[in-house]
Amino acid sequence: MAFVQSASNASGGSSASVTPSSAPTSGNVAVITINSNGSSTTHTDNNGSTPFTKETDEQGNGTHSIATFYRVLGGSEPATYNFDLSSSQNKSIIYQEFSLIDTSDVWDVPPSATTSDEGTGTTATAPSMTTSNDGAMGVIFAAVDSSGVTFSAPTNSYTNLISEPDNRSSACASRVFATAGATGTTALTLGSDDWIIHQFALKPAAVTGGDIAVLRRRINGR
């Protein structure tokens, strides 16, 4: 499994959109996270023939709401992905793309109420999760209820940090867990605020032969 690319955007209004910096690759998996103002805002897919599946839509800490979507990418993807909000709000959206995911069952540990925590302060800490597969791709998603907040110093060896500070600040990071089992908690440093943070994991595709050497290099960062 490997992190491929990310992109982010921030805007006002009743829709959210994000444009990947490079053309998505067929067979990869895209994960979209949205952080919106408003304690009761809900989010829906608006991508026509290339729809995303909504995994979570959570109205949480402070005055912000978050959602997580995913899609197995096909051979003809739009340049921009679009989502609708139940009301006009400030929001941020992050796109992440990953390769070598099990496209028939993408989640090792799906995002849910048990994978998240919320609080206030300068450190957001996600609960430990227990992965079932060697090589699972861990993802963290942190969201706060104001703008201009920066995120830094992810723990637990997470990398690929992408931070969108505008409108309703949010951030994501990822890492491969080489061995299945309890991952431990993961934290991000941020400007003091109300926060929600999730830790979840994507399921690796089965690999054989030469793919194993490629996967080992990616896990070890080579």
Please, how many domains?
1
Which structural class matches the secondary elements? Answer: mainly beta
**Strand elements, count:** 17
Q: State the distance separating the first and last CA atoms.
A: 13 Å
What assembly state would you assign to the polypeptide chains in this entry? single chain
Which stretches of 5+ consecutive residues score pLDDT under 50? none
Largest sheet: 7 strands, antiparallel
What's the helical proportion of residues? under 10%
Helices and strands, in order, run as EEEEEEEEEEEEEEEEEH
Strand content: over 45%
Average pLDDT rating: 93
User: Rg, please?
Assistant: 16 Å
Number of helices: 1
Question: Looking at the structure, what is the overall shape?
Answer: globular
Please give a structural write-up.
With 222 residues, the protein is mostly beta strands. It has one domain. 5% of the residues lie in helices and 52% in strands. The protein has one helix and 17 strands. The protein has one helix at residues 210-219; strands at residues 2-11, 15-18, 29-37, 43-45, 53-59, 64-72, 81-85, 91-99, 107-109, 116-126, 130-131, 136-144, 151-152, 159-164, 170-177, 181-182, 186-202. Strands 9, 10, 12, 13, 14, 15 and 17 form a seven-stranded antiparallel beta sheet that branches. It has a five-stranded antiparallel beta sheet with strand order 1-8-3-6-5. Strands 2-7-4 form a three-stranded antiparallel beta sheet, with no helix packed on it. Strand 14 and strand 15 (170-177) form a beta hairpin. The two termini are 13 Å apart.
